[in-house]
Amino acid sequence: MPVSTATLGSVSFLSQLFNPDVSSLSCFVHHTKLSTLYSKPSLLRKPSSSSLYHLKVSASSASANPKTDNSQQAEAAVTAILDNSVSTDELKPAPAPARRSADWKAARAYLHSGFIYGGRVEGFNGGGLLVRFYSLVGFLPFPQLSPSHSCKEPNKTIHQIAKGLVGSILSVKVIQAEEESRKLIFSEKEAVWTKFSTQINVGDVFEGKVGSVEDYGAFVHLRFPDGLYHLTGLVHVSEVSWDLVQDVRDILTEGDDVRVKVVNIDRGKSRLTLSIKQLEEDPLLETLDKVIPQDGSADSDSLTTSNSSTIEPLPGLDAIFKELLQEDGINDVRISRQGFEKRVVSQDLQLWLSNAPPSDNMFTLLARAGRQVQEIQLATSLDQEGIKKALQRVLERVP
Length: 399
Description:
It comes from Gossypium raimondii. By secondary structure, the protein is of the alpha+beta class.
């Protein structure tokens, strides 16, 4: 189990994560007279492997300031118990206000360190779970729950799921700790992100389950090898399908099983960007190979072969043609053929470069808008990279 280090005041301690039961000792043990303990370093021996916390208290600072704060007293007392150096009979609980103050300091330490805490679910209300943090009770909003719960029991309401979690231990992170306003907020999602985000990379493909569907896209829960859904990513509306998507809800519904590709990981903001369409064949390939076959064969109702004088250019192409002819190395631009796709990919004009290099000083571009596809022939002395740069310059000049 990984060991992490944190510092709280003059107290340094090691915390074994995901093991809340022993750590809860510090919520009820406070030594009222620790001056003798501070002056006896031999009492602070190395803990056994089962100890959750090991604190080293600076003897010099303690002797200089015998009124050390209660959080240090609590942690030192825990060490003494774990080392069997001080009998539990000698320890007296601190007054409730001092105890709560020490636990708020501990909460802030968890907030700043990013440590994971194992909190027991004490109950729930209409908005989330009530989670025990030492002598305090914090709040875990339902949106901050790991998706594994709802995916495991999809037929249950969130309140039924919450009822089943009462009494269980959840790994959470403190995301807000404000003693003045008594706001102690937890997130299970953040704790799960810390554990599982290291197991994914851009380009990975996951089986997923659609969660909520919004106007701007759909949130998809990723299934890991253990069979549980630990992380959630966004499939933006532009990454749902190669088709023109007016409403994501027309394509995706909550609970749908989908395959997604990880296209971006923002580890700083704990965000995943996913794509469904990138696992499907780009309809551009259908256009090149089927709608406008390179061998010239096609159904009469899907392809028109003619010279540029009889095919009306798509809106915006005339301006692009004029600018292309201003580029060195491009001698002629004309539309050779046009076809019609079965699907609407975008209403906006799009230009696509052919994968084939120029042949006999001729190069092919493809213009698309709506269902229309027009094949453009360039008479050029440029190579493929030169054409690409020329096209980039042209598109920067054309509004």
